[in-house]
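=== RUN LOG ===
request id: a7f3
mode: sequence -> structure
chains: 1
length: 397
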Amino acid sequence: MAITIIQEPAEYASAHDALWHVVESDNKDVAGFQYIFDIYKDNVLLTRVKNSPYSVFKYGILNVGNIVRSTINQERFTGIYIHHEYNPTFNYFTNSAKTEVYFTEYDVRFGESTGTTIFPDIASGTYRAYNNYKTSRWSRQNSDISGNVFLTNRPRPFNYYKGHPIIFSVYPLLNEEEDNAIQLFYVNPPDNLLNGEILSYGNLNTFGLVPTGTNSYIEMYENVDFDEILIERIYLKQKCSKYKCHTLVFMNAYGGYDSATFIHGKLLMDNDKKKFEQSKWQINPYLDPFITDKVTWFKDEVGVFQSIVYNEGNKVYANTYKEKMELTSDLLSTEEYLWLGELINSTRVYYYDVDKREYYPVTITNNNYEYKNSFTNKSETLTITIEFGTTQNSQYK
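=== RESULT ===
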């Protein structure tokens, strides 16, 4: 018996798409024959699916997209360590193939069944599905994920504002050998490379730093057999704002993370008042007659009760509210506007507090985004409204 793999997902398949596996067995003409698909993750069986031969070719066909998508939803945002101070340490950063935030790795083991007899794992393969989307015709999201060492469509050079971080993700090497690593440096001229700063990392091969120079740049080197090969250099450009800036961190089109800094923010409130109706006439034992339209409030300086609140028929006893913020960007180029479309569509957005160095999950509730072109629209800005995820409560009345 033998099973031949006819078709499998592309090398950089998106987990959003159908992931078709097609196989053929030399026993396909046996009565009662069925194909077996065992889907594994980390050597743990997720599910077993049996399919009868399909079409005149009697192939075994299965789309594992839904199964694989359920394994990529285990993502947790654990924070990103951001350098705020200069650190001249020279070091290596070895990438791991188990970065399962923007891709998930799974095995399919193909077998067959003839009646009551089961023959599992006759053929097998290991595959990856990436948590990225590349369907936009307007931007570089159509480019193959393998073509971007830095997992971002952010225009070069990277713009930043003083005191605010630049956050970005890098593509992991598939080779996990010890002598095959990536070195990532932040260089602030006139310092040379050896005095550059090795960027520490948090989750998902994601890096963050606060630039300290006006002509800084980031260099990525691949260390192959201890030979350093420059992969890419990205220059950093400082911009200025007379207002207090605000930085958002968001999952981008590649499933990595980007940061975008807005030059102005305005705090808003969205509240829900808890109240009840009551009679506006109160019984007041300190007055004659006892029925009054005033509510006793306090004693005056000589100890006499004063009634100063009239007709409180609608009483608010508590207030639940959420904080919102309206953020406005600097003037944007066409490329920047296209890139920030990923922020608008992102399912995971955080507000980064540069003082506390903490992340707060937010939801984009409103925006003025529409496709812009700097040649026809001249200068454009982006305005969005974010809502913080924590509900606040007032005191009870």
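=== NOTES ===
The domain at 3-83+100-130 is CATH 2.60.40.1930 (Immunoglobulin-like).
Residues 86-99, 138-142, 174-180, 191-196 have pLDDT under 50 and may be disordered.
=== END ===
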